[in-house]
Amino acid sequence: MKIHKAISPAVIELALAFNDRDGSYAEHAAVALTSVFRNTSSKINVHILHDETLTVENKLRLTQLASSFNHTINFYPVTLPAEMAEVLSGTASLHTWTGGSMYRILLPSLIPADKVIYLDCDVIVNLDIAELWAAELNGFYLGAILDPGVINVAENVTVLGLDPAIYFNSGVIVFELNNIRQKMNWYEDTLNFLRSFPGTTMPDQDVLNHVFGGNYLQLDQRFNSFYIHGSVDDFHQKIIHFAGDIKSWNPLSPGYSLYQNNFNLTPWRMPSMQLTRPVQSVGGKVTRRKISARGKHVLQRRKNRKTSLRKTGFIRKSRPLRQRKTIWASLNTTTSGTRGRSKQQTVAPRSSKNHNRSKLGSRP
Predict the structure, then answer these.
(1) Mean pLDDT score, 254-263
(2) How far are the Cα atoms of 17, 38, 88, 105, 276 from residue 110, in angstroms, in the given order?
(3) Distances (CA, A) of 307 to 58, 166, 293, 313, 320
């Protein structure tokens, strides 16, 4: 593995993908992003792959977070392609991991970038992520870390035609998207694997190993350092992946204080922090409220006049102000932070063949 010292690249492309049915994963994504922002000096362009469960309010909060650190963020509403949804319909494990776990596989067809770092939402970054970005992939499809837990499920992996000795974890990946796009059959290979092995228990990870496992760069373990209950909790200069049952947001986790330190800097913890200006929601449409210097002067004169009239008895009771719903939005929501947003649902390229084998299994 060849990694140069981080040299502050112009822009680092960073992607996260999730379902947000109960609203909690938007928070966890915010914490993961905050941990990146705090430790990285380079400009970061964030890509969020999501479905309809991500609310407008949580989008605004994520936008506010990125803007507060002077980074940009883009949102991609995703619908799984019909043929992928069909082969996944028989995968019982997707009820555990959700369809959002498959979004990372579609990155080559979704985002306009040549290279991107993908992170799971249950990671905390405790280093400058430019170090990971500096990995030279050259002709490799991706860079990833060997899965330390595969030794416990080696037999299950072998049944799928995968090699446990080189089986990587899909929680932290550097994708060389242009190299993948040149592999013309990558999407067909994905569908074929899912048809052939409906019993896969970790579909996204197994698919990625099947399609790209023969040509990937093994990265240093510190870029995806697993915390499993009872393991050593040295979190210095690492990307910590809380891949076990006890996540970092669990008060019993040794990473809980680290999670809270980052959480406290997000709009979820400080919704009224002075990072943005309030906007009014009129008729369901969000509009920014702009007041010029002249306008402020006029408002102050009106206020002074009302105060004077009250003292003289001409105004006995002021009319109640009309209540309007206030939403917090980014000062920069219409600039580069929205670059690349799609108002339409995004789908991956359609398969050109219709294979009829079995169904499949999964993990996020």
Answers:
(1) 95
(2) 12, 27, 20, 10, 29
(3) 40, 76, 21, 10, 15
Distances in Å between the alpha carbon of 306 and those of 196, 219, 295, 309, 318?
A: 77, 68, 17, 5, 9
> Cα–chain-centroid distance for residue 80?
17
DSSP string, 235-247: -TTSEEE--SSS-
Provide the 10 A C-beta neighbour count for residue 129. Answer: 23
> Residue written as tokens 């992996």?
157
From the list 242, 11, 220, the residue with the least C-alpha distance to 125 is: 242
Q: Where is average pLDDT lowest: 23-27, 207-211, 241-245, 288-292?
A: 288-292
- For CA atoms 48, 44, 348, 175, give the dihedral sign: negative
Average pLDDT over residues 73-86: 95
Amino acid, single-letter form, for residue 210: H
CA dist 287 and 329 (Å) reads 10
pLDDT at 285 over 90: no
Left (φ > 0), alpha (ψ -120 to 50) or beta: where does 340 sit? Answer: left
Residue 303: per-residue pLDDT: 52
User: CB 162: neighbour CB atoms within 10 A?
Assistant: 21
Q: What is the dihedral of CA 258, 61, 344, 103, to 10 degrees?
A: 10
Place 273 in a pLDDT band, splitting at 50, 70 and 90. very low
**93, 5 in Cβ contact below 8 A?**
no
- CA gap 306, 266 in Å, rounded: 39
Averaged pLDDT, 93-106: 81
**Which of 15 and 279 is assigned the larger pLDDT?**
15
Which amino acid, one-letter code, is at 349?
P
SS3 310: helix
- Residue 139 makes CB contacts below 8 A (sequence gap 6+) with 179, 215
> Per-residue pLDDT tens for 64-75?
999 999 999 999
